[in-house]
Each structure stands twice: as C-alpha cells, then as structure tokens.
Amino acid sequence: MAKFTLLVTGSHSQSQAHHSAIRFIRAVIESGNEISSVFFYQEAVTIANRYLCIPQDETQLTDQWVKLAEAHNFELQVCVAASNRRGVINEEEAKMNGKVGDSIDSAFAVLGLGQLAAAMSNSSSRLIHFK
Amino acid sequence: METTNTTIIIASPPFGKINGKEGVDLALVCAAFEQNVQLVFVDEGVFHLLTTQEEAFFDDKFHDAQLKALEFYDIERVHVEKESLAQFGLTQQQLIDNTSINTRAEIHKMVLQSTHTVRF
Fold first, then answer.
1. What residues in B contact A114, CB-CB < 8 Å?
2. Domain limits, chain A
3. In this predicted model, what pLDDT tens digit does every residue of A63-80 receive, in sequence order?
4. Which among B29, B34, B115 is the nearest to A113, CB-wise?
5. Chain A partners of B1 at a C-beta cutoff of 8 Å?
6. Chain A window 43-72: which residues touch B at a Cβ cutoff of 8 Å?
7. Which of A4, A50, B55, B115 falls between 20 and 30 A from B49, CA-CA?
8. Domains of chain B in sequence order
9. What is the DSSP code string of A62-107?
10. ipTM value greater than 0.95
11. What is the pLDDT of residues B71-103, one digit of tens each?
12. Does domain A3-129 fall into CATH 3.40.1260.10?
C-alpha cells in the first residue's frame, strides 16, 4: 500500500488544481492506497474561507474536501502565513491581529509550513503537487 | 533516519508574483527540518539572484533578503540553470555570491536523485 501527501497550491477559482486533487484522492482510495494529509499553500488556502458562496449549480469544492477528509480520515491543513496573508484567519489569529471575527471553515486546521516539511521528511509518503 | 533530499525549483520572477518568496520559505523550512535541500533557479526565477534589485523600484518589501539567510539554514549554495541565464543575457558576475551554474541536464539529474521536488 502506498501513502500520499498532497500539496495543493492552485487557486480554487482560477485553476483546476482542486478538481484534479479530489479526483486523484478518489483514485488513490479506490485502488486501496492511502492519503496521509492534504496541505493547502499559496492561492489554494482560500478554499478554507468560510464566506465563499459558490453558485448552487456549480461544484461545491469545500463540501467535497470536507466529506472526503471525514470519510477517509485525513486532515485538511492550511498554511498559517499563506492564509493570514489572504484573509483566511482563525479566531486566535484574528485576535492577535486586531480583527473582528474569524473567516476560516472549522473543517480546516491552521498549521505552519513545518507540518508539510515534517510530512516530506517521512519518506514512506509520496508528495504529489497540484498547482 | 534516512536523509530526505528535497529540490525546490523557483521558476517565477521576483516581481508580480509571490511564488518565489513562498517557494524559498518552503526551502528554508525543509532545511530547518534537516532535509538536504537543493534550491534551484530557472527561467524568470533567475532574476531573484541579481545583486542590482532594489526596493526603490518596487514600492514593497523586497523578499529576496531571505536569500542572504540561506547559509544559516545550511543551504550553502543555490543552483542556477545555465540555459536560463543565457536566455536573458545574464552572467554569474551579476548574481549574488555562492551560486553554482548548472546545465539543464545536471538539474534534471538532481531532480531524479531527489526524494521530493516542488516547483514554484
């Protein structure tokens, strides 16, 4: 059985990165392999903004991510520096930066880049990048 | 524990995009996690390494100060693709210190020998 760590950096609105990553995850699971974690970096972090309102007849990417992660027991991780820079913040970061209210979907975990580096140091997991 | 060989390729220019800065950030963090990091500049990414870049022309913080911190993270030299330099008529003398000029074929080999490669 192979293990995969996904790095997603493409924008949810300006690239196919999220659609491709989700299809890849389904194929990994269907073939009896495993997803270790998914790390969102660069423009991809805006997927974690809970104020996204995508027209109802279009793909609800956030819902798809959350359902997949729950069903297959992997974490949705967003980079704190990349998400702060793009207005996707949790309560703690909001307080620290003098902002009112958070903007992050609670299904996503806010973590440092070190989390991705640690996953890369674990040689049993292959890194696949969607941009 | 087996050493992880990580190649980070910067192909984006220093201005107009944040890819280069966020790529170098990842390189620094991977190095802090004691991975053997190869930082490679190709295509318009080579402009990150010019010594003549100035904040005055940019009206924002110039990210590449972080390139000066590389040695503190045990990234002793950065690799620059020879063909990319030639494409823009640049020479090694115009670049920051401690660059290693490598051909596309050499960089290809580096990637093949890496555990992970991430391109920005």
1. 29, 32-33
2. 3-129
3. 999 999 999 999 999 999
4. B29
5. 121
6. none
7. B115
8. 5-119 (3.40.1260.10)
9. HHHHHHHHHHHT-EEEEEHHHHHHTT---HHHHHHTT-SS--B-TT
10. no
11. 888 887 899 999 999 999 999 999 998 899 999
12. yes
